[in-house]
Amino acid sequence: MTENNEYNVIGKRVPKVDAREKATGAAIFGHDLRLPGMLEGKILRSKRAHANFTIDISKAEKIPGVVAVITAETYPHVKNLGFLQDNPALKKGKVCSYRDEIAAVAAVNPETAEDAINAIEVEYEDLPNVCDIEFACMENAPVLHEHAPDNILKHRYDFVHGDPEKALEEADFKVTSTYRLQYVAHCCMEPCFAAAQWDGPDRLTVYSTTQIPHLMQRDLGRVLGIPAAHIRIKQMVIGGAFGSKLDTYPYEIITCLLAKKTGRPVRIAFDREEEFIASVTRQPAVITVSHGCTKDGKLTARIFDAVLDNGSNSSWGATTPHIMANPVSSLYKVENVRMKAKMVYTNNAYAGAFRGYGNPQATFAIESNLDELAKVAGIDPLELRRRNFNEPGETTPQDLKITTCGMKECTEAAVEAIDYDKPLEEWEGVGFANMIHVGGGARIYLSDGSGVTVKVDDFGRVVIITGATEIGQGTDTAMAMIASEELGVPLENISILNSDTDYGMWDAGVHASRTTFIVGNATLRACRMVKEQLIEAAAKKMKIEPGKVVFEKGVFYPEGGSPEDGMKVDKVARSMHFRRQGKHPMATYYYDPPNELQDMKTLKGNVSSTYAYGTHACRVKVDPETGKVKILKFVAAHDVGKVINRQGIEGQLHGGIAQGIGYALMEDMVFEDGKLLNPNLLDYKLVMARDMPPMELIFIETDDPEGPYGAKGIGEAGLIPTAAAIANAVESAIGARIRDLPITPEKVLAAIRGVK
Amino acid sequence: MTENNEYNVIGKRVPKVDAREKATGAAIFGHDLRLPGMLEGKILRSKRAHANFTIDISKAEKIPGVVAVITAETYPHVKNLGFLQDNPALKKGKVCSYRDEIAAVAAVNPETAEDAINAIEVEYEDLPNVCDIEFACMENAPVLHEHAPDNILKHRYDFVHGDPEKALEEADFKVTSTYRLQYVAHCCMEPCFAAAQWDGPDRLTVYSTTQIPHLMQRDLGRVLGIPAAHIRIKQMVIGGAFGSKLDTYPYEIITCLLAKKTGRPVRIAFDREEEFIASVTRQPAVITVSHGCTKDGKLTARIFDAVLDNGSNSSWGATTPHIMANPVSSLYKVENVRMKAKMVYTNNAYAGAFRGYGNPQATFAIESNLDELAKVAGIDPLELRRRNFNEPGETTPQDLKITTCGMKECTEAAVEAIDYDKPLEEWEGVGFANMIHVGGGARIYLSDGSGVTVKVDDFGRVVIITGATEIGQGTDTAMAMIASEELGVPLENISILNSDTDYGMWDAGVHASRTTFIVGNATLRACRMVKEQLIEAAAKKMKIEPGKVVFEKGVFYPEGGSPEDGMKVDKVARSMHFRRQGKHPMATYYYDPPNELQDMKTLKGNVSSTYAYGTHACRVKVDPETGKVKILKFVAAHDVGKVINRQGIEGQLHGGIAQGIGYALMEDMVFEDGKLLNPNLLDYKLVMARDMPPMELIFIETDDPEGPYGAKGIGEAGLIPTAAAIANAVESAIGARIRDLPITPEKVLAAIRGVK
Questions:
Q1: Which residue in chain B has the smallest CA separation from A449?
Q2: DSSP summary character for residue B500
């Protein structure tokens, strides 16, 4: 908690550089965008979970102000979206969920577009709903897609290390339980948005809130059947994403098609209800976990079996087991591990990426189950964990190479902060959970890298150009701090450009907590290259050897001289520029971390170049009359490698913990026969400021050798162990285990009544 | 006129890459810009040419919807603008012209802003108008500015080479005449625009139609008293500039101050009338020229004396003699030359840069005077010119180093095209004029350079990032063609980014016909660096030596192999990117031409790295009843070095000739006591399409050794000799010389009556 004096800027508390423009309304979000001649696009979605349909758009087309109405017939050669390319932007003849897109209109204003949507006539021929994964897996269940006659995705996961079945059988103590994780919504402040504009037959500009601009460029080229070289993605200021914008979705393709059809720019902007119904969710799961241990609490076996409701189509939710494998294989030392997962098509919503991906689900199941094991084994749950801590230098069953590891330090710091030894009052409980997550990128593509250009102009303005994406996580501020640290210029002199595939260099997108680590490394190295150029120029100007130049706080002066007689960055920059063959101090660095693509079958490989650890601990009090859980204190101790922006990392953790508490106690998308019953922020309960408990954040600085200044990525960590820690604390308070999230007062009361 | 087969793209006719977006309304000009919360700014201008005033803004401030009213008192520390820093953005206590800014308002809409302007109460105490340069120069004339008690700018020009007075005296033939050049307006399609937005106390973004983004950044910093490092200039799509946006003006500062005062974005957008009254003009001049020659027509002396009406303040108009010195010293071979110029403060409008700067004025005077000399000497005017042609390899009296020179070829081609030997009918005349102009940049700043980055993404999209400015002259297209030529990718794959000081590298701005030459050279060299990278990557992929790689039309293949088996640019780019330490093919090149800053006193120095020549010839028919001049045929033969975009260069010349014809025959800003009487396009006569004569364009390709593919800059050339050629043709038709532009029917009739 002490500020780091080694650096001038790094580790300090710095308000976000984009805070002011966001707070004052100056920032231009997608929903603020108005292009000349822009039309409003709207999508007609299915009114059934599962049905065949026919459609008649003739009345809609005749409404004055309607410029285009399109269906699957309009552009038959457009290709499918989705991880398994099973998702046409516009569905043809059959719908498999309430979110299914069956037609779209572009009109001169939203009201007319809405009228046109209402004037489209659809006749449905109902098919039996398949909204339950057990029903979907039955023999002779109605089939959603021809390519999956058993409703199960071809793509399956089976990870194994050692002989877990044998180890479990031979374990001194063992326990098996099933945990159920619900649908939750990202609830980004800004709902989905896209705008598209064509310049001629196949040059396309898309204004987007995507997290993956460069991959979106590729996706759009493939799906629309035009060269990706003709496509430019301009990101708007993004009002939160949390993984929800990690894929390319039907509404984005539809926006492009409407713009194509009309020859005018078209936007599609969801309202909150459409956001709930038609954006992706966190992947729900039913997870059965078994653990076995020796008499002294050494873990010997872990078997993890997940069944995922894949919904009607496959977005990234279908790949969450890939990330589940990380904690399953590597959270604590367990020699014998198996993870199996299958994904089932249903007529429900489909899931995407959401902060932590499959890790919050897996960690909830594993850490809940460990407490259950501790109870069976008669070992203090904290002690059980201590006996199985991960350690620096280990290689895990998934072949993750652990460099630095602050699990022990995090746990002990949390133990102290939560005052573990303090006796519990009646209905009071205390719980812990640990986590591991990628902290140094996650290679899921040929490149996990990022290119950064740093330029210093004649006035000492430093511009950082990157392909990275600021979704509110504070990347811009972290990069500005790195440049400020390296080049000794104030933050006000620094400009970050990062929202355009044309000027931005390749970046794999915002995911896997990678940005500060990857882009930070690229920025740091590019800044250092620029610094070398400046030192050389200063040496030339001062007529000394570069090795004799001292550079401190933005001033260059000769060794043994005084900073007062020195030259500032702008002056040195001008001396480089205003001479024969002059140029701005400028450098580009591509940082691609030393991590590996995992084998798709074995799931093994060192996917990240470092790993983040953390411990959440909380003390709760349960009201036995109402079943309400009150968190008395919440402690989050995280191995962050090194703090870059103290205020930023606090914000990340506060936000993560809030989402974790919501996941644990409140948030739940309630579906009935595939229909979402609470698509609004009144009925869908988010954690609000007033719900937040007293929090203590602890940063363990393990100084990662690969991280920028030693930092690890920490964007997702904040919510990964939260729900498990709360569930364990509730169990500690009421003596009963709740295995289904969210832990609502109703479930708590039922549990209390069942036990006491 | 033949297409060049040496290249695939260079020299071809290519429609502008931005034509479609401009034609369809997709382009976002300044006037289209709407920022969230943006206010409308308006300026109150003087209702007198010369007066002291007091001001009361209290009523205006009380109007609902008015957010700010500012005067010179509001920000007293703001510094002056202008070449001589004699121009406060808001005038204090005294006005010196009708355009003088005395207050400004920001309001929620234009109507309210207008109401507020009308509610500002100004009391004027009239001072004697000084609207005539002779009156201004009289002893005891009323003084405009304390710093110039004789109303004459300190800054004067006196260029001399040889002994021109003696040479004139000794000449066999000599002639002296005085020529008067009028005020003309740029008449950009888009009137002036600026918008400003502050982020906190001193971070400023300006949306601008400036031609000099990087120098504007510097200007704004100096004038507003904030670090230029805190300023970002974003250029909008610009609807014409022609030099009018080469300076930073009061309305731009006022926009920033209103935005500062209100804390909201503010825009100021001129309407056509304000554009006429308050934007700069071409510099009017009274020029007395003497020429002397030997019996056989060898020019021996030229004396050129210019008096410039500087108007109330100094913008770039005050520096036009600097450019006049170029033709005065170097158009034809003349050993003994003098140029003197003085600038006089008056209560008239002030001038700025305008296509050709002082060259059209000087060339009109010189080329008219040469015809007069030819008459006196009894030599055919064409023959007189032939005997004094400039030639390759010469060093002119101003120390201009002539590398390539197509003056002879241009003249002879024009002679043929205009069918010089064809006998003239009654009232028909034929005239010629030549020109020299900078064609390889013009160093007026420490750097005359430009930085260009070229990047190739994974899909083969080529992005060219420059600090250059597209004002409609076709730079983007020329750069795209260069990249297409070098990298073998279609134009559709190329994107040009050039409108933002943050991502753009330094560029000295659009002036001096420099962009295709300077930025073209930078683009060409950056492309070639990228090509080297690609060849190396292709060699690696093909496992051969780079020297064995053939690169043709975007395909890399092994020497002796076939293009069909080759790799395209995108594939090679991916092979460079998707490997360890991978990166995009990308390079930055700063091209700064080998030219010199001229000595401010002697005006000598090789200001450009090459020079453009051209000949205009025309055949006219005068209607003796109406005095109307009809151009029967117009020929423009230009030494362009090499044609880059044939269609683009045709467009440049058509536009230049149209402006030249307007200058010669129609355009005239009529002032009465400092007040402009025709501030609209009904009363100010522009040349329209129907007024254009049959034209023949001839491109002489002298293959300049320094130019990109041999090209010279040609943006301004098109209008430089036009008026002189027309005046000479009119003299040829009516036998009388008209020395004052424009050559209106009234003047022609008067001349005819005076002679015949």
A1: B582
A2: B
Residue A163 is assigned to a structural domain of this protein: no
- The answer to whether residue B161 sits within a structural domain is no
Q: How confident is the model over A534-567, as pLDDT tens digits? A: 999 999 999 999 999 999 989 999 999 999 989 9
B495–A contact, CB cutoff 8 A: yes
With a cut of 70, list the residues of chain A below it in pLDDT. 1-5, 755-756
The answer on pLDDT for B5 being more than 80 is: no
Burial class (CB in 10 A: 0-12, 13-18, 19+), B414: buried
A497 and B495: CB-CB below 8 Å? no
Residues of A in contact with B506 (CB under 8 A): 457-458, 577, 584
What pLDDT score was predicted for residue A755?
58
Whether A560 and chain B come into contact, CB under 8 Å, resolves to no
Q: Report A:475-494 residues touching B (Cβ under 8 A).
A: 489, 492-493
Q: How much is the pLDDT for B3? A: 44
Query: Which residue out of B452, B502, B572 would a mutagenesis test of the A interface target, given it has the greatest number of A Cβ atoms within 10 Å?
Result: B502
| B6 within a domain of the structure (yes/no) | no
pTM: 0.96
Q: Which helix (H) or strand (E) holds B173?
A: strand B173-181
Query: Residues B310, B350: contact at Cβ < 8 Å?
Result: yes
Q: Say yes or no: A216 and A68 in one domain.
A: yes
CATH number at residue A72: 3.90.1170.50
DSSP B525-574: HHHHHHHHHHHHHHHHHHTS-GGGEEEETTEEEETTS-GGG-EEHHHHHH
Count contacts between A and B (CB, < 8 Å).
161
Q: Do B26 and A199 touch (CB under 8 A)?
A: yes
Q: What is the pLDDT of residues A637-648, one digit of tens each?
A: 999 999 999 999
Domain co-membership, A574 together with A615: no
Residue ranges of A 344-403 with Cβ closer than 8 A to chain B: none
Output the CA torsion B171→B173→B178→B181 (10° steps): -100
Structural domain that includes position A250: 33-127+189-241+245-278
Q: How far apart are CA B60 and CA B44, in angstroms?
A: 11
pLDDT for A422 equals 96
Domain identity same for A688 and A654: yes
Find how far residue A458's CA is from the centre of its chain: 38
- Which range among A120-129, A286-295, B408-417, B562-571 shows the weakest confidence by mean pLDDT? B562-571
The last residue of a domain, from among B259, B278, B297: B278
* B164, part of any domain: no
Structurally, chain A folds into a number of domains equal to 3
C-alpha distances out from residue A155 to A84, A147, A149, A158, A495, Å: 9, 12, 14, 10, 44
Alpha helices by DSSP H, A89-233: 110-119, 133-137, 164-170, 213-224
Cβ within 8 Å, pair A505-B25: no
- Would you call B15 an interface residue with chain A, using a CB distance cutoff of 8 Å? no
The vertex-B596 CA angle with B298 and B210, nearest 5°, equals 110
Please tell me the distance in Å from B492's CA to the nearest CA on chain A.
Answer: 6
CATH number of the domain encompassing residue A377: 3.30.365.10
Among the candidates A572, A591, A610, a domain finishes at: A591
Q: Is there a single domain that holds both residue B417 and residue B521?
A: no
- Above 70 in pLDDT, residue B20? yes
**Per-residue pLDDT reduced to its tens digit, B97-124:** 999 999 999 999 999 999 999 999 999 9
Using a CB-CB cut-off of 8 Å, the residues of chain B touching A463 are: 502-503
Nearest residue of chain A to residue B577 (CA atoms)? A447
Q: What integer pLDDT is reported at residue B4 of this predicted model?
A: 47
Q: Say if CB A581 and CB A540 are below 8 A apart.
A: no
Residues A269 and A294 in one domain: no
Residues A657, A727, single domain; the answer is yes
Residues 564-593 of B with CB under 8 A from A: 570, 577-578, 580-584, 586, 588, 590, 592
**Subunit contact B458:A583, Cβ cutoff 8 A:** no
Q: Are residues A535 and A480 in the same domain?
A: yes
